[in-house]
Amino acid sequence: MLQRNSRKVETCLASAARSYERAHATDDLAMRDFYLNMERSWMRLAASIAFSERVELYLQHWRHGQDAGRCLRCNGGMELKLIETRVDRESITFACLACGLDHVHQGRAGLFVGPRVTNPG
Ligand SMILES: [Zn+2]
């Protein structure tokens, strides 16, 4: 799945690249540490923005899907319960408001699949 980064993410990545270049262009060790820390901060921010944008996109898609927002067991409405992210994996858990059943949508970064039903209530 090809995915273009948003402008916000691109701005963060460009800032990280500038910090990296400045870190390697200076002989001052304190300044090098400063720029390397800046690079890491920009990269963390880029990852955070990219993740929240993917979640937002997924939730928009989910709300407009054919079976969106309905429990597979009782057809009750569902609410967002938990969002988890790891280095290589992300998951979004919805809980049924009627019966409490969890629906877990998992995928590699940026690519959700599912639902997988767990934790029968
Ligand atoms: Zn249910």
Indicate the topology.
Blueprint: H1 7-25, H2 29-64, E1 78-85, E2 89-96, E3 102-108, E4 111-118
Antiparallel strand pairs: 1-2, 2-3, 3-4
Helix pairs in contact: 1-2
Bound molecules: zinc ion.
Residues 71, 73-74, 76, 96, 98-99, 101 line the site of zinc ion.
**Share of helix, binned:** 40-55%
Given as residue ranges, the uncertain stretches (5+ residues, pLDDT < 50) are none
Number of strands: 4
> In the residues, how many domains can be counted?
2
Task: Specify Rg, calculated over alpha carbons.
Answer: 20 Å
Shape: elongated
Number of helices: 2
Question: Any ligands, ions or cofactors bound here, and which?
Answer: zinc ion
Q: Could you spell the SSE succession in H and E letters?
A: HHEEEE
N- to C-terminal distance = 35 Å
Arithmetic mean pLDDT: 83
The largest sheet, given as strand count, sense and whether it forms a barrel, is: 4 strands, antiparallel
User: Can you list the strand order of the major beta sheet?
Assistant: 1-2-3-4
